[in-house]
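Continuing from the previous page of notes. For each protein in this section, the sequence appears first, followed by its structure tokens. Read the first protein now.
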Amino acid sequence: MQMLAVAVIKLLVISMTLVGLLRLIVFLFIGDAQNELAIRRLIGGARGAWRRNLVGLPESKRPF
């Protein structure tokens, strides 16, 4: 059980590091704060965020 916990923690640390590196690479190469935000949303899997951003569209015209 303890080994499983250690494995899960290691996996979390590795994935967080990879995400951080990916964001850093994108930020360095593009250098655009807006794109960095978009990448962060993508990585965070925040599907609700872009739904909330479609403020101008009425409920019936939204693409979901």
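Done with the first. The second protein uses the same format. Note its length before scrolling.
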Amino acid sequence: MRRAGSRSVGAAAGGAAPLVMDRSWFPTSTWLTSDGCSRPRRRMCLGWPNHTSVSEVYITCLTSPGVTMRRPLPSLPRRRFAAVLAAAPLALLTACAAGSPTPTGAVGEDAESTTVRTAYGTVEVPADPGRVVALGDTALDSALALGVEPVGTLSSRGGDAVSPYLAGKVPGIALVGTVAETNLEAVAAARPDLIVAAANTPREQYDALKAIAPTVVPEPARFGAWESETRTVAAALGKEAEAERLLTGIEQRAKGIADRRSADGTGTAVVIRWMPNGPVVLSSTLMSGRLLKRTGDRTSPAAAFTGKPHTDPLSLENLGEIDADRIYLTTLNADGEKALAAAEAQPAFARLKAVKAGNVDVVDGDVWSSAAGPLAAARVLDDIERLRAGA
């Protein structure tokens, strides 16, 4: 079964007349030529005129001059044109190769495929994708937990590399952008068969990504419900049963921790991220907050809000708002750690209940305040068990 909106591509009879795809373009165009055509994805010669808007791409093969395709491009600002130019036609380039009418990453009539319900409708994906790009912490975490090693991902929030808790599992992975901006050209260069994006991926970006390869964007769920995103990733990878085993194991482990706690060991807990301009309180609906509740802690009133990940920064004078029995404190960078050192010298910080009792625990900011997924959940549970054992 071919993807909707495309046709098989091959040389016309006698190799004379070019085959043209779609008819929704404007006069302005640019040329993209595959150098040699035997490995069209690996060697490409891109050239375009100095236009502010380009509406279509011609794709030709030097070794098969009778094969030409014309592909419309979305209307985008010029600064993003180069990335989309490289991305949009890649799903079609393998048509240049003799005897290969189905684009790489597309589902052929004789190949197995599956459909996944996503935020942008039902998407047909390869049943066994060989090259996966995972855009976002949850997508990468979930894929790795399910035994799939993606070929591309985004750098972690506040960093320039993969989150440290995952870096050892994907030492050679290509970075294809940041949390703030995905580099479409880098995504295309990774030659994915499947792209798994974050649940908050906007429509414009989705449209650009799906021109590269089938793209799965999880349906928006209630805020902080990371398990539903993991289930969508699993469906795209054909790993639903494995995902349910992982999620059930996490739930059972959390319950076991709660059952082992004595009645006097429970109390209120809050997770904060220390920023240079003061701490922010993380919502109890985030993954770490949900796991704290499942393991027996009560939600601090300061964290009992929904719909956003954290509060605005609190001034040192208002630190009393985070006065819980236990504080889990995260930082994402050296500036935050310096700010924490300064706060420890402040009388308002010293007066907090958790500070007086020695119940302030510094934890990994990537895992506790930014990441979500089965591997991150396991790390949070590791920390909870370790820290409570020493309480």
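What the second structure shows: The chain is about 30% helix and 20% strand. The radius of gyration is 25 Å. We return to this in next week's lecture.
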